[in-house]
Amino acid sequence: MERRYPVGIQTFSEIIQGGYVYVDKTDLMWQLQNTSKFIFLSRPRRFGKSLLTSTFHSFFDGDKKLFEGLKVMQLEKEWIKYPVLHFDISRLKYKAVSLYAAELNRQMQKYEEEYGSNPAETTPGMKLAGIIERAWKKTGRRVVVIIDEYDAPLLEHLHEDEQLKEVRAIMQEFYQQLKAGDEYIRFCFITGITKFSQLSIFSTINNLTNISMTPEFSAICGITEEELTTVMQEDIKIMAKAYGCQPDEMHAKLKTMYDGYKFSRNSADIYNPFSLMKAFLLKDIASYWFESGTPTFLIHQLERFQTDITTMDSIEADAIAFDQPTDALEDALPLLYQAGYLTIKDYDATTEMYTLALPNKEVRTGLIRGLIPRYLGLNSRDAQGFAVRLWKALRVDDIEQALQEMKSYLASLPYVEDFKKKLEDTATREGFYEYTFYLIFSMLNLYARTQVKCISGRIDMLVKMPTTLYVFEFKVDGAAQDALSQIDTRGYAIPYQAGDRRIVKVGVSFSSTSRTIEDWMVKAE
Questions:
Q1: 514, 481 Cβ separation under 8 angstroms
Q2: Whole-structure pTM value
Q3: What is the pLDDT of residues 243-276, one digit of tens each?
Q4: Of the candidates 181, 168, 232, 179, the residue with the CA atom closest to the CA atom of residue 208
């Protein structure tokens, strides 16, 4: 039979009844609902949170038939039907703030029809409180409340102070009823991307358990390596056939593109489920996570905190540093982690320090392409055309042609007002070009690192190609020869001479007048 992939389908019953590929997480779901009454889970967008909430809905609705053959059947014995209140807060996005209350009321209308209403309940919070109490009285069972994407409207207005206050007031009046209705609630499950500490959902629910970094639940969303090579082994074979390669080669391609997420210190590597399923559906590896572009709220925060993305290949931090509330940010690190642009790569138990980095090729490429138009003032189509020409030159190790393409490209960039100061300030000129080179090389998904430490100083940039290692030194209004000589006199290439790549030293001179490459010198070993 043809394999069916649930791309865009977030309803558990539809996936099971429609015979779609399903990776069984019901054992983790069962364990989770026995862990605590109020639970919060943070995961990046398109990572399976909505499917998990739908699975909880079917489970607490007592729909046993849907779970036949799944792991939970060996664990659950009672299959009690509870009254379930399920809210999708992401539906408030793209609506005027003045319509938020109306949308919340609309989602509660069906529950009022089932459990009754009270004309005196005039706000979303009052209606929610009334529904919870009446559902308990009518059924004799405590209520299950499921809230998916609780922070969607808050993130929509994260950079708009006045509107954010208005949104927070509406949502706080709604969420605070969860604490008030504690005695009537059996289980409350809340998902989102970020944490807003000043919202009542965190400030008043004292027993809210945040399992976002709990090792035993780190794989509750997403697809693990083991799941890919067992449940989805057939899918790898099908895609390998479409690509004309062996299954192990196909596996390696998928791993490079979509794997690499970790959500706790002991987490297995996890694949992006949305991108993986869509790749299997279309038989094509592409950056599906970025089809709708880099979220506006993230771009604004990167600009607000002047985030240096050249450091995102390896950042050391303790858990407090990247698990901060979104409304108390001191830098963009917590938001980058919570939104899935950074992930845990390593943990040192002795120092209790984490190493964070970009998860995979999909995130690196998508993030850079989202930033280039904002940073360089050039549209993505122009950037793509240049990238193709640059890649063709680098692929055949023609660094001379590559630098010529780079020179022409930089000369074509608009003189963006935001960066005049950087070019006028001698202390930041070199860093500006270094950052620009990093963006361009990273857009091609090449291994590019800036300010690489060595015993005699810092290398401006290293770029690794399959057979060649380029060592760059940059000078602004200086001589390319001086830049090349610095590589030799400080021995920047020495640590890499034992490797199997050919070493090419490149000294590059920039002109602050023409704002592009003035000259370069190349020396191959």
A1: no
A2: 0.86
A3: 999 999 999 999 999 999 999 998 989 999 999 9
A4: 179
